[in-house]
Amino acid sequence: MERSIEIEVRSTEIDELGHVNNAKYLEYLEWGREDWYDRTGLGAEQLSAKNLGTVLVHLKINYRREARKGDRLHIVTRPKRKGNTSFVLEQDIVNENGQLVADAEVTVVLFDLTKRKSVPLPAEFGPIFEEAND
């Protein structure tokens, strides 16, 4: 299941070079993941009811082109693969002209909130990743 959100770059997100500060891209990606989690039933509220949470354990990002104040960006999030206790998401940040601004691969672990350690993904996660694993 692919999801996309749209944002507009604000002046507070710009660095001294006049483009989006590199750390802000990580925040944009997080906003995209939170939306994806909520839409797939893996949101914080749904998981915490089962005493579970998600922990980002690895993020690889490529910065492809600059974004500037007022740019409208789409943050696209889609599943890539599912492991035993973790899953991988692919994320793209695309500008209003359809140009790739940044892309990332994010590894997330399912986490037991009481035991404070990773746990196997439940079977209900399977359908979310079926298309990605084909």
UniProtKB/TrEMBL annotation:
Protein name: Thioesterase
Family membership noted in the UniProt record: Belongs to the 4-hydroxybenzoyl-CoA thioesterase family.
Origin superkingdom: Bacteria
Keywords: Hydrolase
PANTHER family: 4-HYDROXYBENZOYL-COA THIOESTERASE FAMILY MEMBER, NOVEL THIOESTERASE SUPERFAMILY DOMAIN AND SAPOSIN A-TYPE DOMAIN CONTAINING PROTEIN (0610012H03RIK)
UniProt-listed NCBIfam families: YbgC/FadM family acyl-CoA thioesterase (TIGR00051)
The keyword Hydrolase is annotated on this UniProt entry: yes
InterPro entries: 4-hydroxybenzoyl-CoA_TE, HotDog_dom_sf, YbgC/YbaW
Gene Ontology MF annotations: fatty acyl-CoA hydrolase activity
